[in-house]
Amino acid sequence: MSLVETKPPRLSRRSNGMELPPEDFDAVTRWDPAYRYELIHGVVIVSPIPAEGEAQPVDRLGYLLQRYQADHPKGASLDLTLPERYVYLSDGSRRRADRVVWAGLGRQPDPKLNPPSIAIEFVPKSRSDRKHDYEIKYREVGVAEYSIIDRFSRTMTVSFVDGTERLVAEQEAYESRLLPGFELPLQERLAIADRWKSPPAIRRSRRRTTD
């Protein structure tokens, strides 16, 4: 009797809420690119890809990090930075961070073996997705800093591996101890996001006619 090999499922928006073991989630090779997929406590969570107001600030941050690595006297502190990468949590969850940074290793990291030193999220409009962002416990796998940039509260919350937090106000600039000399001005990130705010609706008035 031959065993029938089962193929991993194709992920789509209808996969939201599907129960899936971590090894099956990792084996998926077919998905709808209009969405992003995470595995939280064995359940697939589907959300739209980041909107322009979320993606462009993250893209700009990547550019500044690469310039720091190439041009700053202490830029060698940064080993690698990548957008949209999974962080593998100890409970088997797969969380997709907007940007991750490896620092202080002195070598090319293996994303599946080496957790990032820094994870950064730019929270979306969806209340449920924002809730998930604030509930992540990245420190359990050794992520030294987890930053949440919230354009709705105009703040950035930085959670450290020792369980402490720092709240960065809009007018402040944050410098990580892992990236000496690299400052992240929060106001600049928020200003980029603000460019993508929806314009006010145009009210159409009826044209008056005369007999």
| Mean model confidence by pLDDT | 85
Q: What is the CA-atom radius of gyration, in angstroms? A: 20 Å
Kindly estimate the percentage of residues that lie in beta strands according to DSSP: 25-35%
Helix amount: 10-25%
CATH class of the largest domain: Alpha Beta
Quickly count the helices.
4
At CATH level 3, the topology of the largest domain is: tt1808, chain A
Topology:
Layout: H1 22-27, E1 35-40, E2 43-48, H2 52-71, E3 78-88, E4 94-103, E5 118-122, H3 127-135, E6 145-150, E7 155-160, E8 165-169, E9 173-175, E10 183-185, H4 186-194
Parallel strand pairs: 5-6
Antiparallel strand pairs: 1-2, 3-4, 4-5, 6-7, 7-8, 9-10
Please provide a brief summary of the model.
With about 210 residues, the chain is α+β, with helices and mostly antiparallel strands. It has helices spanning about 20-25, 50-70, 125-135, 185-195; strands spanning about 35-40, 45-50, 80-90, 95-105, 120, 145-150, 155-160, 165-170, 175, 185. It has four helices and ten strands.
Q: What does this protein structure show overall?
A:
It is a single chain. The protein has 211 residues and is α+β, with helices and mostly antiparallel strands. It folds into two domains: 13-48, no CATH class; 52-194, tt1808, chain A (Alpha-Beta Complex). Helix content is 21%, strand content 29%. The chain is built from four helices and ten strands; from the N terminus they run αββαβββαβββββα. It has helices spanning 22-27, 52-71, 127-135, 186-194, and strands at 35-40, 43-48, 78-88, 94-103, 118-122, 145-150, 155-160, 165-169, 173-175, 183-185. The strands form three sheets. Strands 3-4-5-6-7-8 form a six-stranded mixed beta sheet, covered by helices on one side. A hairpin with a 7-residue loop joins β9 and β10 (183-185).
